[in-house]
Amino acid sequence: MAKQKSAKFSVIGLALGVGIYWGLSM
Asked: Which of 1, 5, 24, 26 lies closest to 16 in space, CA to CA?
C-alpha cells in the first residue's frame, strides 16, 4: 500500500516537473 502511494506521488511530482519545465521553456 505504501509503495503504491509513493509511486503515485512520484508520478504526480514528475508531471509537475514536466509542466514547470514546459512553462519555463515556452
From this structure: 24
